[in-house]
Amino acid sequence: MSIYNLTIEELTDYFLKNNEKKFFAKELFSWLYEKDKRITDFDMATNLKKSTRERLKAEFKISTLDIVTVEKAKDVRKYLFKLNDGEHIEAVLMHHDYGNSLCISSQVGCNMGCKFCESGRRKKVRNLTSGEMVEQILKVESEGKVRISHVVIMGIGEPFDNYDNICKFIKIINHQNGLNIGSRHITVSTCGLVPKILDFANFPYQVNLAISLHAPTDELRKQLMPIAKVYPLKELMESIKIYLEKTNRRVTFEYILLKDINDKEEDANNLSKLLKGINAYVNLIPYNETEALQFARSNALTIAKFYDILKKNNITVTIRREFGGTISAACGQLRSKKEDI
Ligand code: SF4
């Protein structure tokens, strides 16, 4: 098992169970996560006893993924990782003026089958462990010589289909002795698994929730996202209202604009109606075309009109800044190329 799977509380229990000192957990966390330490071998944790290091070596792995390729463009780097079992996942690093943000994967493949998504073309192989998610950050920080200030769980996979590992991952990267990434700088994106949205309303960390909406009516949403057949918009919006009441936070709605499919004036008006009175922030995303999928990007004028309609209806909205169209930046493209799917 990866040592990065453990929260500091679990590591404390581990040491206590092995009749070791409780404070070893804090020591080891600092060896694993502190910027100038980041050990790659337990023997480098020199203030732990030799017998302790030997036991750690026998029971835990310290590296569970490797960088295979890095594609670079202005302000963006896209990473392809190989996991210990030979599977591939991706992460994307983006430099913003407010800091460096990393979009990580949460599963190998995805079962949600969104029609416009490259990752959804291949069924889920397995969930990522929390350690494999933590390591995406560590490996990118080391390769890019940067500090990741923001984390977005929006790469390959549906995070809420791997709920327990996601929650643990957040605890680990948020901990002051871990990566110390502020909870308000962490965003979890879901295609709309209603029961998990309700669970997440009770998760005691102030992380951001983003909903991949992409259509303002059930009819259209069902064509694009099979999950809409399980959880129609009425149920989804009710769960979001409960989430908002409990957390007192704002929810982001992701909306990929697909030419002649969900980008009409009528769609913008329907979206405005759907979000009326909700503490919402809409992120309009120009589509990244891929050879394997038939969708096209809306033209700039259509995007501008869509944006204006939302604005006029007092919806807080932005058009997502674009990164790296030339480097297979849409989620799942790099992995598809590698695995030729
Ligand atoms: S958009 Fe997200 S939830 Fe939908 S198939 Fe792709 S990875 Fe899965």
Features:
341 residues, alpha/beta, DNA polymerase, domain 1, TIM Barrel, 2 domains, 12 helices, binds iron/sulfur cluster
Quick one: how many beta strands? 12
Biggest sheet overview: 10 strands, mixed
Q: Tell me the structural class.
A: alpha/beta
Name of the CATH superfamily of the largest domain: Aldolase class I
Q: What percent of residues adopt helix (DSSP H or I)? A: 25-40%
Top CATH class of the largest domain: Alpha Beta
Strand residue content: 15-25%
In the CATH classification, which architecture of the largest domain applies?
A: Alpha-Beta Barrel
Shape descriptor reads elongated
Bound molecules: iron/sulfur cluster
Fold-level CATH name of the largest domain: TIM Barrel
Oligomer state equals single chain
Number of helices: 12
Q: Radius of gyration, rounded?
A: 21 Å
What report would you give on this structure?
- This protein is of the alpha/beta class and 341 residues long.
- It has two domains: 3-59, Orthogonal Bundle (DNA polymerase, domain 1); 65-339, Aldolase class I (TIM Barrel, Alpha-Beta Barrel).
- The protein is 35% helix and 20% strand.
- The protein is built from twelve helices and twelve strands.
- A ten-stranded mixed beta sheet has the order 1-2-3-4-7-8-9-10-11-12, with helices on both faces.
- A hairpin with a 2-residue loop joins strand 3 (88-96) and strand 4 (99-104).
- Helix 6 runs parallel beside helix 9 and helix 10 (265-275) packs parallel to helix 11 (300-312).
- The protein is elongated, with a radius of gyration of 21 Å.
- The mean pLDDT is 93.
- Bound molecules: iron/sulfur cluster.
- Residues 110, 112-114, 117, 119-120, 156-158, 191, 212, 331 line the site of iron/sulfur cluster.
